[in-house]
Design brief:
It comes from Williamsoniiplasma lucivorax. This protein is of the alpha/beta class. Helices cover 30% and strands 22% of the residues. The chain has two domains: 156 residues, Rossmann fold (3-Layer(aba) Sandwich); 117 residues, Hypothetical Protein, Haloacid Dehalogenase-like Hydrolase, Chain: A, domain 2 (2-Layer Sandwich), CATH 3.30.1240.10.
Length: 292
């Protein structure tokens, strides 16, 4: 595809599987160089990720950003540097959380669970997989964050941006999803996905968020905040949690390594994978006006 090059664009970038390489820790040098360069040219770059804030700030700072930061797939939007934008948190309310966790089928089907708000996290039991995915070791008590290990009915009060349910096995998946049907007016289910990365089939993980939250919703807020026509916004993603974002913006780019369904609705597909600097390669050529 080819775009008009005189406009200053809003560029939305997912992290895992998109800006980050397959190690989940490193931005490819080509992508980093390109995202730093487009900012010098006057374009605006925002990270839009399923990760919590603490697991994305490293990359936010590495890319020299001072823009709005979107976490939990749009459930949390903040302004880490300028602090001119009042934080938006779209939560699941406490009563719904307790109804879900007290459901007999769900109680009998889960191996572990997590609740998160912007300043605190509860994990029912110690769990290396969940702890690594959500960077619980990076919680800083002196920064006002709290980590709670214990039973949610006894230790949690108030809303949560998401609920993470780790099931005892695949045979429990459909029965839990059926039970969650009672709450479909309040929550949205992301099956087997953390940060947009598919987890092990052996122990399925369900992530629940506020029903109205997705990255497309966040894209509209970011475009409005920066006074950009949504049709001029560029977005990069690789998994189905990026679907609404790529569909909403005018220039949605799916990663070469991304999900087939995402590629079907995208305006373009990177020529290189995340492990080979696909975002950097594509955005550099696109903003030069090359047919690519």
């Amino acid at each position: 595809m080819k775009i008009e090059t005189s406009k200053k664009r809003l560029i939305l970038v997912d992290l895992d599987g998109t800006a980050l390489q397959n190690d989940g820790k490193t931005i490819h040098p080509k992508t980093k160089e390109a995202l730093l360069e487009v900012q010098k040219q006057g374009h605006i770059v925002c990270l839009v990720t399923g990760r919590p804030v603490r697991a994305s700030l490293q990359y936010y700072h590495e890319l020299g950003l001072d823009t709005l930061l979107t976490n939990f797939d749009g459930a949390h939007i903040s302004d880490p540097i300028k602090r001119e934008f009042k934080r938006l948190v779209f939560s699941i309310n406490y009563d719904i959380i307790m109804e879900i966790l007290n459901d007999e089928i769900i109680k009998d089907s889960i191996e572990n669970l997590m609740l998160q708000n912007y300043d605190r996290v509860l994990i029912w039991k110690k769990d290396a997989e969940l702890e690594n995915f959500f960077h619980l070791s990076e919680i800083k008590q002196d920064a006002g964050e709290t980590l709670i290990v214990g039973h949610p009915q006894e230790n949690w009060k108030g809303p949560s941006t998401n609920i993470v349910l780790k099931l005892k096995g695949t045979k429990y998946l459909h029965r839990v999803i059926r039970s969650l049907g009672r709450f479909q007016d309040a929550v949205k289910i992301q099956s087997g996905v953390l940060y947009g990365v598919k987890t092990k089939d052996k122990d399925p993980i369900l992530t629940l968020t506020n029903k109205n939250v997705d990255k497309g919703f966040a894209a509209e807020i970011l475009a409005q905040y920066y006074n950009k026509d949504i049709r001029d916004v560029i977005a990069f993603g690789d998994q189905l949690n990026d679907f609404e974002m790529l569909r909403k913006v005018g220039i949605g780019i799916a990663m070469q390594n991304g999900a087939s369904t995402l590629k079907f609705i995208a305006n373009g597909i990177t020529h290189k994978s995340n492990d080979n600097g696909g975002v950097g390669d594509y955005i550099t050529r696109l903003l030069k006006g090359e047919e690519y």
